[in-house]
Each structure stands twice: as C-alpha cells, then as structure tokens.
Amino acid sequence: MDDPPSTPATYTPTARTTGSRARERLAYDRESVHAILDAGYLCHLGFVRDGAPVVLPTLYARVGERLYVHGSTGSRPLREAGRNDAGVPVCVTVTHLDGLVLAKSAFHHSVNYRSVVAHGLAHQVTDQEERLLALDAIVENAVPGRADDSRRANPKELAATAVVRLDLEEVSAKSRTGGPNDEPEDLGLPYWSGVLPVSTVHGAPIPAGDLSPDIPLPGYLTAR
Amino acid sequence: MDDPPSTPATYTPTARTTGSRARERLAYDRESVHAILDAGYLCHLGFVRDGAPVVLPTLYARVGERLYVHGSTGSRPLREAGRNDAGVPVCVTVTHLDGLVLAKSAFHHSVNYRSVVAHGLAHQVTDQEERLLALDAIVENAVPGRADDSRRANPKELAATAVVRLDLEEVSAKSRTGGPNDEPEDLGLPYWSGVLPVSTVHGAPIPAGDLSPDIPLPGYLTAR
Fold first, then answer.
1. Where in the sequence does UniProt note compositional bias of the Low complexity kind (chains A, B) (predicted)?
2. B-chain residue closest to A143, CA distance
C-alpha cells in the first residue's frame, strides 16, 4: 500500500503483476476493478481546490463502465462539474481493508487490502433519466432492494441533488493478500507473526423512533 | 456527508454546529478531531499530480498535533515532500462509517459517520529520532503493543522508508448520528425506516505459516 504506481494505469483487459512485493498486485483487468467497486459503497473523492487537494468521503455506485457519486448542488466539486462542460479532474478511490499483517520486523508490517483508484474528468449528469438511474443505483449499491422500497425523489428533491459521473477509463486495482513476507534471518526472532483479519460488518437494523410497529423488517435487511 | 464545508475550517478549540441538518455537525474542537483520528489507522491521502488529484490509502498515526504517514521513498508525494523544503499540499481524510440511514424517501437516505479532513503542507521528516518515533507510532496506532514486540527498522530499512508529517492546523471533524430525518408528510408511507449499523471488526489472528508453534499469541492480540 505504501508503494503506489507512479503513473496511473490505463484500463485494458489484461492483468499484470508488479515485481516489488510477492503478493502485492496491480491489476488492470475489468473484472478485478468491478469486483472491488461492487464490494463497497463508500469512496473517497479527490479534487483540486485553489491548487490544493481535497478528499471527501461519499457514496457511489458503478453502472457498467461508469461511476456515479451524488451530493448537494451546493457542494463545490459538484458545482464546478456542472459549470464546466470539459469536466473537472477527480480521483475516486475505494479501499477495502482485509487485514493487518504483522511481520517479525516493523519494516515488513503491512496490510491486506483491495483498492481501486479511478482518475478522470467528472461530468455533472443533466439527463433526467440518467440522474434517476444513478440515484437508484447509489441506493441499491448500499442496500440492495431498497430503491423499490422507498419513495423516489420528487422534482424539488431532484433539483437539489447533483449527480456526477466518472467514466471508468483510467483505473487500476491493487490488492495484497496472505501472510507476512519476513526476511529469512528474522524467522527465528521470538515475535508472533501472522495476520489480524479486518472486516466491515452490518449489525441488527434499528427501527426509526417514528416507525409504525405495523411495518415489518424487509427481507433485504434480514438477509444481511 | 454530501454537503461538505466549502472552505476548510481552522483548528480552534471551539465547537460549532451547522444548521443544514439536524444531527450533522461540523466540529472544530481538538478533542473531537483527536478522538476520530485515534479511532482509526487507515487514511486517504490526497495530493496533486500534474494538476490532477490523486487519492491513495495509507496508514497513519497521530502524535500530539502531528499526523505521520509513511511509505516507500520511491512513492511520488513522499519524494516531492522530501525535495521541497516548503512542503507539498496534501489532504488527509479519515472516515469511520457507523451506519446506513434508511429514510422513507430516497432523498433523505444518509449515512452515520465520523470523519476528519486535515489540509496543509506535508514535510518529509529527516530527523532520525522523529522518524523512529513516527514509525513506532504508526505500528502502535494499528496494533497497540506491537512496536515493542517486533524488530525495529535497521539502518538500511530506515533509509528505504520515507516519513511524512502534516501538522494539525487546518482540520475539521464532521459526523452524523441518529435515525432518519423524514419529511412529516412521508411518515405514513409503508416503508421500513431506521439505521443499519456498520462497524469494522477484527477477527481471530491467523499465525504465519512459518511461525514457530512455541510462540504464543501475544496479549495485545487476544484482547482485541
């Protein structure tokens, strides 16, 4: 994770392996990128403001070869994407942390993870049909089954919502799996080594205080 | 989360509340910032490359009013931070996702979260004592107790490791808690509403394949 590619990869349907670390891989293939994106719903969106980087967490969804993020029409990168036909440069990064890798040496401590970094020009989506599709997709990506089980946005709400699209063109996937890669001369040291698994879990749903007791928990929530 | 402050907050020991959302808060106070930073160890580091934003996941630690991240000396932002005495502009964002908020309307769907966004100029740390302290802190922040229970970096490893510091000056904390904020006219709709809690958990440690069976699991791992 501490050795990122110095130039972003172009999205081509082939796979390559970096040589620097045994089990660390830079994957350019479509399937890896999609799998990592589809396994999450929170991304970190980077943009440039007055020459300085800004990184904000937000929800996203993938639809085919497009990433959608949404937000208030008042938020700066979304406003700029709306004003600028050429689009605004963004970076969308999705990271799943899978484990802490504890080696005999501090130097070889690492993390197991899967990440996707997508670069490109973000465009504000103005087509109404595409906007509705993107908003449904963002809800569905976080909670599959939910879009049909909630009230969709009315015209006033739609007008207050900006939807931004980033085409998946300049995108790379990177991941690490497996145990520590210790130096042979360190293997006799008296320290425990291995992996502490990390995962993100969903707990039992908590009903809203104003929810009628007549409304049961939907199946798409009991199944999680 | 979709309505970020348009200008970053200055770090002052007072707290303020944004008016736009009932339970969404922009906190400037030191305690909130520290608590959110100390509850995590993975950040998203943003920097600017050729005018475009780049966002990469990496480990961090807070020591007092300083954030440290480390990486290979070959990685670009760290190299640039080393070449440039004035520092390079970065944004470090830490996000803890606490829940998916399901409202009656798609529009009021939201997330519960805690996040810190720190802006500023990153400097490469050259002082050897500070470098060692920072590396220990990064290991300790991820796995408390581990720095003393592993082999510390030797001179060759230290030379291959870049440590970058960002002083916590221009930093803001933001969080959301609680249930959905539905429109009164939506409360009668037949959809379930509430919160699906989300948390990050650590599983049972997995010993390395080459670990001697004589070495027991350390206490700092059994306690997690």
1. 8-18
2. B100
Q: How far apart are CA B8 and CA B84, in angstroms?
A: 24
A27 neighbors A12 (Cβ within 8 angstroms): no
A76: left (phi over 0), alpha (psi -120 to 50) or beta: alpha
- Among candidates B85, B48, B126, which has minimal Cα distance to A91? B48
The confidence score (pLDDT) of residue A18 equals: 37
Torsions phi, psi for A153 (to 5 deg):
-60, 135
Domains by residue range for chain A, with CATH: 24-200+215-222 (2.30.110.10)
d(CA A20, CA B197): 38
This model of the complex carries an ipTM of 0.88
Under 8 Å between Cβ of B142 and A103: no
Judged by a CB distance cut-off of 8 A, whether residue B132 touches chain A is no
Q: Which of B95, B116, B143, B151 is the mutation pick for testing A, counting most A CBs within 10 A?
A: B151
Rg (chain A; Cα; Å) = 21
Residue A222, pLDDT score: 87
Question: Which pLDDT value is given to residue A202?
Answer: 95
**Residue in B23, B34, B31 with CA at minimum distance from that of residue B1:** B23
